[in-house]
Amino acid sequence: MSKTSELKFLLADAENEPELRALLRDNPLHGSIEVALEREPNAFHAAAISGDEYELIMGFGDNGRTLLGAGARYELDAWINGAVRRLGYLGEFRIHGGLKQRRHLLLHSYRALRRFHDAGNTPFYLTTIIADNTTTRRLLERKLGDMPVYEPLETVTTFTIPARLAARRSGKDVERGGDYAGLSELLAQHGSKHQFYPAWTAATLNSKNRCRNLALEDFFVCRKGDQLAGCLALWDQRSFKQTVVCGYAKRLGRVRPFFNLVAPLLGRPRLPAPGARLESAFLSHAAIAPDDEEALVALIAAASREALRRGIDYVMIAFADRNPLAKIVRKRFPCHSYVSMIYVVYWEDGAAAAAELDGRLPHPEMAIL
Questions:
Q1: φ/ψ of residue 49, rounded to 5
Q2: Dihedral pair phi/psi, residue 194, rounded to 5°
Q3: How does pLDDT run across 316-348, given as a tens digit for each residue?
Q4: 8 and 140, same structural domain?
Q5: Is residue 225 located within the same domain as residue 304?
Q6: How remote is the C-alpha of 53 from its chain's centroid?
Q7: Residue numbers of the domain that contains 322
Q8: Which residues are CB-contacts of 138 (< 8 A; sequence separation ≥ 6)?
Q9: How far from 39 is each of 18, 217, 226, CA to CA, in Å?
Q10: Which of 51, 227, 274, 278 is deepest in the core (most CB within 10 A)?
């Protein structure tokens, strides 16, 4: 590991951006299925959906010659305590090397991150960490050196649903499309009742940067009479964000050939070979009443039928664990799931704002995190 004096932090630009994409390719997330979250063909395309302001920060050693790690800081307008305010998000952390090197670079990266925070406009940040990643969580919660406070808030579950099985469900009548003004009004009504829900306006919904590859016809809506009563979108991000399978845990790797033989009979997708892309899309922009089981099921089913038509095997949706909609997904759909902890992250200048957060149900948009 390079000495602290040799560490150098730079913003990603057109010249060094390919190195950032290589870092993401070469540092997969570990689990029963090892996956790399890639950002081809341009990392800036993926970054732009996460906030209207952002910095992709790259940490170099060896006097600036070797990329050791990277992370990102985003800002966007979101609903906080019933009003639209500025919200930050920290994510995309990837670091080469073992635990000692990772800890060393992580601790010193916060000095650079603090400079960008001081020039920004948000008092605090969100970050999400896989709940069973206890090593990272313990490190962050210790507040070493120049680190901010990482305050655990509550858990959120991301559900991965086989589109072929979900498509068989039925329920309320579902329509496609709509207009940006009507959708933004429904999303604002929903967002005002939740914490951290993005403040989607007609302009952001129609933005080629913030909502890249998302069109009006990708929205699915339910009505009560003439009024919009619920919606979600099928956001296919595969043209700029990819999930690539790098390998399998030993047990799953052994049973994979046998599973793939029977998968079509079970209505499930085959497990891809290492090196292949996982064909998945997010169900984003969800605005559904917590007690409207029929609407949730009908919207997921309709979006899944469209996903199948596009060659998408899995759809993903996320809810806080205390959200009644999470229980409905578990009950009505076969799915895989993983749990993340939502953290509120702040330095001393954001402590008061973080303490003022009320008990509204968190609903961050996992499709942009």
A1: -75, -15
A2: -130, 165
A3: 999 999 999 999 999 999 999 999 999 999 999
A4: yes
A5: yes
A6: 17
A7: 160-240+270-338
A8: none
A9: 10, 25, 41
A10: 51
